[in-house]
Amino acid sequence: MADFVGISLSQRVPNPESIILMSGSSPIPSSEITPEATFLNRRFFMKASLWAGTSLATAGLYRTFRPRPALANSGSPIATVSEPALTTALGPDEPLNSFSEIAGYNNYYEFSTDKNAVAEKAQHFVTNPWSVQVGGLVTKPRTFDLSELLKLGQVERVYRFRCVEGWSMVIPWIGFPLSKLLALVEPSSKATHVAFETYYDLRQMPDADSAGIDLPYIEGLRLDEAMHPLTLIATGLYGKTLPNQNGAPLRLVVPWKYGFKSIKSIVKITLTDKEPPTTWSLANPREYGFYSNVNPQVDHPRWSQASERRIGQGGSRKTLMFNGYADQVAHLYAGMDLKKYF
Amino acid sequence: MTLSADSRFQRKLIFFNGLLPALLILSDALRGKLGANPVEFVTRATGVLCLIFLLLTLMVTPLRKLAGWNWLLKHRRLIGLYAFFYGLAHFLTYLAFDRNWQLLTVPGDVTQRPFIALGMFAFLLMVPLAITSTNAMIKRLGAPRWNQLHRATYYITIAGVLHYYLIVKSDATWPLLLGLVTAVLLGWRMVAYFRRP
Prior knowledge:
The complex is a heterodimer. By secondary structure, chain A is an alpha+beta fold. Chain A contains nine helices and twelve strands. In chain A, strands 3, 4, 7, 8, 9, 11 and 12 form a seven-stranded mixed beta sheet that branches. Mean pLDDT of chain A is 89; it is low at 1-24. By secondary structure, chain B is an all-alpha fold. In chain B, helix 1 packs parallel to helix 3 (76-98), helix 2 (38-67) runs parallel beside helix 9 and helix 4 packs across helix 5 (114-131). The chains are: A alpha+beta, B mainly alpha.
């Protein structure tokens, strides 16, 4: 009889004679019987192996799902210049999120759809050399080397970051206003929108195939949104260059829009005269619109946007109109039906 | 006595392995090792564990018929109770962290969000199954009625997998995998049903 792990424990194949003699008093020669001590030893061994094996398998399975510990901030320091405050200060109940939280919990589908796994999967991503092609409806189309962009005075901006999934953080970005870069290429009078594109390379992003969205990732803004002083091209956070998982070497940050608008690892910026397609609205036009402004009154079809969970804090907090930047940006949408233009 | 007949040993092994993920989650929570969004992790983990145990209960009959592992039957109830245990943990996590214990907001949430409705349906349907899991209840109901009631496990699992599928933004690998296992198990039963003499 086979045991349930497929290993025979006490079975000995009896010789044919002993089967015939089965009805007799002593069918199996005593030499064929496993000594009791050996039998018990084997049983002990089997049981111990099953305990160890199943526990290790269960724990191992659990470990593969468990969030990984975050890496230390190993970026290079960036020198910043000071600037007058553009927004009101954050409240005392809105402390900065830790580097571990910011760098350990990322949506970057090219690397992984598991937010806790992106840091590890992106660690070997090559961001140097890096250049950004800026063109379209501009007078002076150009390809910029990253080093040139780092020379545009870098400032620190502490912004709330609200993900469409219902969580948020407070992040000390380093970067420069996008308007500074656009001024260098001189948008033509016909330009109305700006389109962005993320780097895409299956060799460096082998899991991108299972992202479930079309890649390369593309995003877009209206030109007045792009020129708004709050709209930032981030090159770092917490005083140092961006970690790969946060969109190194440079990414967009539009603090009053859901996080997915803030496209990472930008390689191409194109000025256009019509609303550009964007990745999430192409993937699901009913759920994700072009504007995607943070708006507690307009729910996602599958969940409420009225509140959010601040990472690092228990409970939930009320989501603010335009993520708390209504004073600075509400005028951009005056007269628009924000339920229609979600 | 071989291990396949040693039901006390099997029971201990299943009991421990069922509890182990809960112990690991607890120990990681106490040491602050659940990542940046512990609530999301605990919610996801308890939900997936509930589905895994539901599927394990549904595997008992096919494994008996196909592999002759009749000893499994004795443990189906324990496995099912683990499904309920993790389902309850999942439900309480939702009440505590998604609803902040504002129980009056739950009905509105159920009507607004289809995936919540599905999850709620699955959880509420598990309650009578957990209550009727005692020997006394099996006797009181009688085996045929009890079996009929516990066939609800299929509806619970299907609702649970759909519930999971509906919250995923784009990478549906896990819910699809669990859905595939559900479909295979359900398909096997249907074939067995129609082939019966």
